[in-house]
Amino acid sequence: MSEIERALRGAEIPGDDVEAAVVRFLRRAERDGPVDVAYEVVDSPLGPLLVAVTARGLVRLSYGDEGDVLEELAGELSPRVLRLPGRTDEVRRELDQYFEGRRRGFEVPVDWTLTRGFTRKVLRATARIPFGRLSTYRDVASRAGSERAYRAAGNALGSNPIPIVVPCHRVVHAGGGLGGYTGGLGRKQFLLTLEGSLDATRR
């Protein structure tokens, strides 16, 4: 529940009128747009995913705790964060297609606001790794402008705010090891298996 919804539920509104007020507000927000960040929690083969969008595009996709992510969004972007499933429909549809094996690339626009500097360069380079292909930390660092900064590239990938869509799971160690992953190695293995590239890490 967002801060706006909590405020409405805590307001002095008699009886069942509280729920009605919340519903009216959500409908108005959906229609008129007094919300900077809209989100929804969607089911996936990897567990619940929190999807958040702004007017610019997908800004956050998280495996993490909903409360922590909403607090991050409110602090970093705007306190006007609201659960509006309709605003996330496009992202949810593309994720469903991806997990069903019917999509090889995402078309939803990305909002890079939560990234800066070298991290943003690394993630933009990562976003260009094709489906079914792998890259190394050093290669990604090189494409971001600093081949020797492969450790920093690893840190940037670990803080990726939009995993799956910005496919940090496609970055592995030069020797073939999987490396780390923000969602845990089990999820990384699942994604690479889905894309048919897991065997490439074992050559």
Task: Kindly describe this structure.
This protein has 203 residues and is α/β, with parallel strands linked by helices. The protein is 41% helix and 11% strand. It is built from 8 helices and 6 strands; from the N terminus they run H-H-E-E-E-H-E-H-H-E-H-H-E-H. The chain has helices spanning 3-10, 17-32, 66-76, 89-99, 117-127, 137-143, 150-158, 185-194; strands spanning 37-42, 49-53, 58-62, 81-83, 135-136, 171-172. The strands form 2 sheets. Strands 3-2-1-4 form a 4-stranded mixed β-sheet. The mean pLDDT is 88.
* Mean of all residue-level pLDDT scores: 88
Share of residues in helices: 40-55%
Largest sheet: 4 strands, mixed
In spatial order, strands of the major sheet run: 3-2-1-4
SS content category: alpha/beta
In terms of DSSP E residues, the strand content is 5-15%
Write down the secondary-structure element order: HHEEEHEHHEHHEH
- In total, the number of strands is 6
Low-pLDDT ranges: none
Give the overall form: globular
Rounded Rg? 19 Å
Please report the distance between the alpha carbons of the first and last residues: 47 Å
Q: Give me the number of helical elements.
A: 8
